[in-house]
Amino acid sequence: MPDLRWLLDPRLRADTVPVIDLSLCAVLLNDDANYPWLILVPRRPGAVEIIDLAEPDRAALMAEIAQTATAVRAVTRCHKLNVAALGNQVAQLHVHVIARETTDAAWPNPVWGKAPRKAYEAADRERLVAALHGAMAKK
Amino acid sequence: MPDLRWLLDPRLRADTVPVIDLSLCAVLLNDDANYPWLILVPRRPGAVEIIDLAEPDRAALMAEIAQTATAVRAVTRCHKLNVAALGNQVAQLHVHVIARETTDAAWPNPVWGKAPRKAYEAADRERLVAALHGAMAKK
């Protein structure tokens, strides 16, 4: 259900590439090769908090978190998933789904404010986006 | 639906006080006066990731996140909510629901690894637990 009033926040747009559009969320890959890191953005104008969403949208958000987390884990075989809706710096409601390894640049801490962003090599990014898209489109 | 095989992780137990038991989650107050900070622990033995939960439990988790977030915001009138399932240090699945202020000890960063834990004064803790319990029990 496209909402033509909805626009992706410019900072999220600048830092990510699109992976897939699910029913509720635009699913983006954060262009940071330190961690496989998806960002889910519900296409609902003005939503800042999870509790700004209507109940059916909250249920859809949980379903899409599970779908993307399952895909990320299948593709990366990661040790741990981190799931978070913070929004202290970018107000537009967005949910991080991050694959963590015990060897990654921030482990065991949360990823924010740790390793400087490191853009993917183009071929690596394309391969990862294709794999994630494939794992999610199958559902 | 009590599950007698479920036991709260000892580190979560040491750092928190109980607020209320919802259908799925034990709701705990993190004993850190820097931020009003709830921790929701689904009473499901062995659950580490959100996607370890069966679909009905995931739906219940989202409903209880919304219920607790609504209560925290009503009680604290906070500027922002942070919601996160990380689990890098304590494996037992738990979800943080944290009230953030632009004047708090970590803003605009995530709270983890910032200000040293500061236990509540007993009377303040009791008052906050009672207010949160009241806001959640009403639902």
Short description:
The structure is a homodimer of 139-residue chains. The first copy, chain A, is of the alpha+beta class and 139 residues long.
Could you walk me through the main structural features you see in this protein, from its secondary elements to its overall organization?
- The two termini of chain A are 18 Å apart.
- The radius of gyration of chain A is 14 Å and the shape is globular.
- With 139 residues, the first copy, chain A, is α+β, with helices and mostly antiparallel strands.
- Helix content of chain A is 32%, strand content 22%.
- Chain A is built from three helices and five strands; from the N terminus they run αβββαββα.
- Chain A has helices spanning 10-15, 55-76, 122-137; strands spanning 16-21, 25-30, 37-42, 80-85, 95-100.
- In chain A, a hairpin with a 3-residue loop joins strand 1 (16-21) and strand 2.
- Chain A has a single domain (10-134), classed as HIT-like (HIT family, subunit A, 2-Layer Sandwich), CATH 3.30.428.10.
- The model of chain A has no long low-confidence stretch (mean pLDDT 96).
- Chain A has a five-stranded antiparallel β-sheet with strand order 1-2-3-5-4.
- Chains A and B meet through helix 2 and strand 4 of A and helix 2 and strand 4 of B.
- Strand 4 (80-85) of chain A pairs antiparallel with strand 4 (80-85) of chain B, so a sheet runs across the interface.
